[in-house]
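Supplementary Data S3. Sequence and structure tokens for construct A.
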Amino acid sequence: MNTFRVRAFGITKDILGGKETVVEASGKTVGDLRTSLLQKYPQLAGLRSLFIAVNNAYADDASVLNDEDEIALIPPVSGG
């Protein structure tokens, strides 16, 4: 298992119960982390979109994570 520190913003902060959490994932990709997040916090599946940023850039599910990476959950944004 790999352990990652994840920062949350907007509605994801409410779902995770705070602005930061530690998540264990079976692999080292963003996709592995996403799977673990959805298992631990099933309410995340109800969001119409959920982006994961790594080191201040959007990351796709194939991106490989390192222990020191800054990981953030970016929820849907509304505005006008």
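Construct B, processed identically:
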Amino acid sequence: MQLRYAFRLYPEPGQRAALAMAFGCARVVFNDAVRAREDARAAEKPYPRAAALSQQLVTQAKHTPQRSWLAEVSSVVLQQALRDVESAYRNFFASLKGERKGPKMGAPRFKSRKDARQSIRFTANARWKITDRGRLSLPKIGEVRVKWSRSLPVTPSSVTVIWDSAGRYFASFVIDTDPDTGQGRWSGPGPDAAIGIDLGLTHFAVLSDGTKIDSPRFLRRAEKKLKKAQRELSRQQKGSKNRAKARLRVARTHAKVADARKEFHHQLSTKLIRENQAVAVEDLAVSGLARSRLSKSVHDAGWSRFVAMLAYKAQRYGRTFIQVGRFEPTSQVCSACGHRDGPKPLDVREWTCPACGTRHDRDVNAAQNVKAAAGLAASACGAPVGPEPVLAQREETGSHGITYRSGAA
């Protein structure tokens, strides 16, 4: 499996200018390739092949007055921009044919210098390297200072340099790892250690053992600062330097919120995977909830990213990850006797089973039903019952389709 390791970069002023040049050249080549394909489609001609586009838009364009500045950046950056176009069209056509999972993809669009994210990619043949001083040496850019938060397990196959809307630079390394090498890294949970998770808004997660994890609500806590920054931005004249500074303050505030949420997801998912041999979570529909009156809280919780982290960490470390069907009535069934009591309003947080008289906490009961529905409930001899679980495959991007169920709050 492939993993990404991202580290903060601190380029010097001259290196920032060289990176801006590389971002711009890659963007121009990408746009030229999209335009060539769109022109071919309008003329009802076959799409030009990648080799023809490379010859026309890179090799020949460097010798023209209009594109002579393409020679100032690494040719690998330009070739990778063409590969991105090929990948974008391949995914677009696969989505049209129904061969690609997830939401429908639109046709590739032109990139803009005002986009919130700019990136370039260097593969192994670009001869980039990590120097003895711990700096990242990039062709035609120089040795860039890196803030190493951990060591790389193996030699990366490529590195992507990213510039985000908050003005920060990152180096994202792609690492090819063998899942078998990480399965013995963590020891501790017994073969029967399993947990069911009920995701919500009041509590971010409620576990089948009764543990409740409060929702940090990072966006809600930063709303006062965000409102002030947005107000200052709206009062600045468009195109002025003060407006650019105000926009940067807004972007940095949003970046802090996103980073804090991501760190919370990483810490919690790592803890759950480390302490349990099997983890079950309900399949939710975030896209539906994101259109309701709870949309801001749903986006603030970030359930999809958390579930994706559980999936790939379970695969990497030899744990079992199961998603229970979205139509499973986890909030309507008594986890003690199995009696189905029907749907309940969201303000009902506790209820008593009319069949066996057991008093239930709504969220804890749902988490226990998630665990049982996944086949992780223990029998009288302590052995897990149910079908043999299958490890989930990690998807680098995209959210698992999640649906709303009564009791998600």
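The chain is about 40% helix and 15% strand. The first strand starts at residue 2 and ends at 10.
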